[in-house]
Amino acid sequence: MLKLDINGASYDVDVEDDTPLLWVLRDTVNLKGTKFGCGIAACGACTVHLDGAPVRSCSYPVADAVGAKITTIEGIGGDKLSAVQQAWIEEQVPQCGYCQSGMIMAVSALLAENPAPSDDDIAESITNICRCGTYPRIKKAIKRAAQLQGGD
Amino acid sequence: MAKLNVSRRKFLVGGILVGGALAVGYGFLREGEPDNAALTATTEEGEIALNAWVKVDRNGIVTVAVPRAEMGQGVYTALAMLVAEEMEANFDDIVVEQAPIADIYANITMIKDSLPFSDGHHQGEETVGAWGMAKVARTLGVQATGGSTSVRDAWIPMREAGATAKAMLVQAAARDWDVPAGEITVENGVISHAASGASGGFGDFVERAASEAVTTTPTLKDSRDFKLIGKPQMRVDIPEKVDGTAVFGVDVEVEGMAHAAVKLAPVFGGTLASHDAEAVRGMPGVIAVVPFDIGVAVVANSFWRAKTAVEALPASFNDGPAKDYSSAGILTLLEESLDSDDARVYSEDGDAAAAITASAQPVHAVYKAPFLAHACMEPMNCTAKVTETGVEIWMPNQAPTLVKWFAEKFADVPAENVTVHTTLLGGGFGRRAEIDLVYLAVTIAKAVKGRPVKLIWTRENDIQHDIYRPAAVSRFDGALGPDGRITGWANRIASQSVSGSFTERLLPWAAMDMPDNTTSEGAADIPYEFANRMVDHVPVKLPIPVGFWRSVGHSYNAFFTESFMDEMAHAAGKDPIEFRLAHLEGHRDFADVLRKLAEVSRWSEPLPPGRGRGVALHESFSSIVGQVVEVTANGSKEVTVDKVYCVVDCGAVVNPDTVTAQMEGGILFGLTAALYGEIEIEGGAVVNSNFPDYEMVRLAGCPEIEVHLAQSGRRLGGIGEVATPPIAPALANALFAATGERIRELPISKNGFIA
Ligand code: FES
Ligand code: FES
């Protein structure tokens, strides 16, 4: 039994230690907002936060997450939308939407650390894949979120 | 489509009360059926058999049944806008529902355009051949999302449904208030009568409206009076896509469900030779090992356990007929086939061969494009439950009717016991019109009797077992006259036939050696006026599965034709835009797009050395898209795509913001292919496996994109695919302008360029 702290709630999970955190979140804890895209840390669809830092959960053994505060897309805004989520709606970012949980988690982590990122900061830290090509809107939405958060 | 509806077949729009809500349906009647048959037929669940396009409940909430798959193209919003516009509903009161399968939803335009015997691209729906095809499509009852046809198909019916619902509500109010219906106005979901001061919401008249006489010819609004159509609206599917609650196929959860992962024969057409189920039976969570013809599955109590076990499972495979094929060999084979005598002519005018022979300096070039994978962001998946008597499917798919047919066939159950649930799609791009996952999921679910099974493919499964955009080779011979205009244009393409491959896979009984317009689309139908023209295609049969990939034949033909137009402009010593304009007499809409493009991109202003601009103009799915790309290439051939200007004329625009989003997305989809896209085949198996070796444009490499709408008033065109074709040639032409190097093969790394 492993004890996990996810979005402020505590879960006991009975899985192999090396199970990727992604599949524990999706199949064991039934939090399906976090997505599977590649399974090899190459796309970012599965991004969650561990103590606020972005982690690609498809390649992160669940045992290593014990003791950390895990935050997923379901918990990022608390009971309302976060500034990043709000900006995502205002800029009408998602197309199919599949990559967007991971995008929002990656961007939230970036803005927490760097409230007013430059274009280069953004290009360097947001390496997630969006197959639908929403990057132009993501760039705008990051700036807007920074404003909404009062960082700009 | 309106013409067809009215003159060639009976249709009916009517209202009925369903569970206290007014439902307005739209149906096609078969010969000899009474006019009310459509509305009185009910299914077992008590719903209207022909389904409602629009339902209004007592609270005034308007539910629009959208018979199309939402895969990010904004179709839920666009179709809801059509209804709301004519109903004068408050857009905030509109709820969108994925429509169940019904024969009336057959996506007539798509089937007609993609089937071999459709009669070309410029003749519209009104011709006899097209009509016959539409009939076939409807008889087949295929409900599909693809070919950028959703709004084109729905433009009239959705609005008529909205107009009818409104007319019925107004009549009901008129009777209730005892005033003439003509004096009643409707705005923003409120029905009012100014003289008497009476007013009410839609919900107040629902019951009464259901008994109002059916209006068979609703009057549609003049486009000048549109309040919603043409104005940007917030997409209805976006909120759930930012808070993680959107349910895609991979998220489906069914009571008692198990999970499956597969290992498939690596060589196309290969089969499972042996496997050792015992080796993994004791692994955690393993429920069953299921061998089948082309591979083996492990069913377990979680996906991770199923995947871990199937990877550990010893298995060997027989090679398929593709064993001796490689992608490099295929390109050579295609090039050799250009000399075949079996070419099929798709466009012929004058005597191109003679014009070229007579030319002092004919221009000659051969172009190549590789196999490509779709790589939808959501890995392929399908959930199936098979019992003795029925089958239930949950799946992100673009063709529920096909899914239904094949689920019935694979599960061997009566048609009436087949249920298909279409979820949101994490990308489709044509891949989700296939039924291979249905086959696998049903086969696996059958083996665990009655237990629902969710099959998810890994990204490796997806890249290596896709149904690919075919590789293609194209040869051009062009002749210029003394005035610098093209006097002869001969273009021969060699590739597999997508329609042929699709038909062979899905409907082998219907497989015939037929012409396939998709092979030459974007080559045989280019708008330029040449005195002598010959465009033909050599179909080459190969054991590689090929299918519909965003914009289909246009995806390679646009690269071929618009690059060669650039070569001809260069040979003529003309500016590429001026040169194109000189060949566009009588095509004002195309010329307008080009001129606007020249203006917004400041085409005539020089760029510093090392930078270059390229242009491409292409029509697909009845929309015209022009793009100008600005690139920088340094001495080490490192390429940066700086900016893309895009002008689109897609006829009437429903949601302009969605058009812009689809242009951005379509451009980046095509840019990814031009910069990186190549599926490599060795020994009949795909070498690429996941994103690092099937790379995508990422945020850092994303150019600035500027989209402009041009509206010539031409007929309604598609938007989902149309931005993809021109980007590769615009990029290649820009690289030529920057470096003097002509790119005749994609991706650009074939020329040593590094993105
Ligand atoms: S699924 Fe984890 S990075 Fe792609
Ligand atoms: S919105 Fe579809 S993958 Fe990003």
Question: Mean of residue pLDDT of chain A?
Answer: 96
> And the CATH topology of the largest domain in chain B?
Aldehyde Oxidoreductase, domain 4
Mean of pLDDT of chain B: 86
H and E string of chain A: EEHEEEHHHH
Radius of gyration of chain A: 15 Å
Summing up helix and strand content along with how strands pair, one would put the structural category of chain A as alpha+beta
Stretches of chain A where pLDDT falls below 50 for ≥5 residues?
Answer: none
Number of DSSP helical runs of chain B? 22
Give the name of the CATH superfamily of the largest domain in chain B.
Answer: Aldehyde oxidase/xanthine dehydrogenase, molybdopterin binding domain
- Biggest interface, which chains? A-B, 58 and 60 residues
Q: Which ions and ligands are bound to the chains?
A: FE2/S2 (inorganic) cluster
Number of domains of chain A: 2
Protein name (chain B): Molybdopterin-dependent oxidoreductase
GO molecular function, one term (chain B): oxidoreductase activity
Domain Aldehyde oxidase/xanthine dehydrogenase a/b hammerhead (chain B): 243-321
Organism (chain B): Sneathiella chungangensis
